[in-house]
Amino acid sequence: MTDSHDRTDAAQGIEGVLLANRDRIVRFLEVRGAGDGAEDLFQDLWMRLTDRRMGPIADPLPYVMRAANNLMLDRYRSARQRELRDKAWGEASATQSPSSECALISREQLALVESAIAATGERPARIFRRFRVEGIHQRDIASEMGVSLSTVEADLRKVYAKLAEIRRQFDAG
Questions:
Q1: What is the CATH number of the domain that holds 9?
Q2: Residue 75: what are its φ and ψ, rounded to 5°?
Q3: I need a labelling partner for 113 at 20 to 30 A (CA). Which of 102, 120, 149, 166 fits?
Q4: Residue 12 above 70 pLDDT?
Q5: Are residues 10 and 89 in the same domain?
Q6: Band of residue 8 on the pLDDT scale cut at 50, 70, 90
């Protein structure tokens, strides 16, 4: 059995556990403080667990629930760190301009990201922007666009896969 085959089997196993227990995991995230953002966190959990190389997992549901709990802890810590950082940096740091080189690199990377998002198609790109840029909840996007929630999730996964590709290129470069 090859590494590629192991990765596929493990990812499909985790995907099956996530799909079969979706409502339970979303409720768990809601109870842990995610509220309306539970659907969005579920999507992030999906991406984290299916985008990594892993071997077989003996007891996958507790593994997924532990990962969901860790995701919530990461969110809390991240929010707390962001508050502390923003407070420490104050207004002075926000007025500093990046170097010309950094600005050029950032513009080039942004163009690559925008191209990758556009390459996924009009609907996935629009859903991604509504969700990630405008902060609209997935259910609201599904209702607004007249598609199912699973279609919204599938389109987001398509965009996230493209962005993961781009990120790997940035990390390698």
A1: 1.10.1740
A2: -65, -45
A3: 149
A4: no
A5: yes
A6: very low
Query: Which domain does 52 fall in, by range?
Result: 1-96
Structural domains in the chain (count):
2
**70 and 50 inside one domain:** yes
Dump pLDDT digits (tens) for 113-167: 999 999 999 999 999 999 988 989 999 999 999 999 999 999 999 999 998 888 8
CA–CA separation, 170 and 110 (whole Å): 11
CA 6 to chain CA centroid, nearest Å: 23
pLDDT tens, position by position, 62-77: 999 999 999 888 888 8
For every residue of the chain, which 3-state class applies, written as one string? CCHHHHHHHHHHHHHHHHHHCHHHHHHHHHHHHHHHHHHHHHHHHHHHHHCCCCCCCCCHHHHHHHHHHHHHHHHHHHHHHHHHHHHHHHHHHHCCCCCHHHHHHHHHHHHHHHHHHHHCCHHHHHHHHHHHHCCCCHHHHHHHHCCCHHHHHHHHHHHHHHHHHHHHHHHHC
Amino acid 59: pLDDT = 86
